[in-house]
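Hey all, quick one. A colleague (J.T.) asked me to put the adenosine-5'-triphosphate job into the tracker so the inputs and the structure tokens live in one place instead of scattered across chat threads. No bug as far as I know, just bookkeeping. Sequence used:
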Amino acid sequence: MVAPFSQSFTIEGRNFFNAGEASTEIKSILKELGIDAAVIRRTAIATYEAEMNVVMYASRATLTLNIVPEMIRIVVDDDGPGIPDIDLAMQEGYSTATPEMREMGFGAGMGLANIKKNSDQFTITSNVGIGTRLDIVIFIS
Ligand SMILES: Nc1ncnc2c1ncn2[C@@H]1O[C@H](COP(=O)(O)OP(=O)(O)OP(=O)(O)O)[C@@H](O)[C@H]1O
Ligand SMILES: [Mg+2]
């Protein structure tokens, strides 16, 4: 059985140099805790996509990782422009990535859809001009 665990991470918007650090650290925490490889993989994908969206579109965020024996919960709460149309943003292929971001390999418009696919529960809420919050739950079975 997995022991309860909780940790918060700060993600800096527009800092491509440190991009992916939180997801990488979370992946090693999950490995350390002996969590099932498939669960780690799904969590790593969801966390990485959420982290990169903060780097690309927001000013900053707090990512909170909570692990209890039944589930992994990740909440990413950002300060940023928010998302005016969540249904549109969720559509595969929709992206507002800049040419520079596309040159770096981002902007396929797949991130949010991939987070949803890899989560057991996924909630996204956003306030334009304030920020966006993702609540991701992945069951450990
Ligand atoms: N945290 C966020 N704050 C503001 N806008 C966001 C945020 N996350 C996503 N978006 C908006 O939703 C769109 C779709 O996001 P999604 O992650 O699916 O694709 P992408 O980031 O554009 O490309 P990819 O993730 O495939 O590199 C983004 O282009 C952006 O307009
Ligand atoms: Mg993305």
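Adding what we noticed when we looked at it: The chain has a mean pLDDT of 97. The beta strands are 5-12, 60-68, 71-79, 121-127, 131-139.
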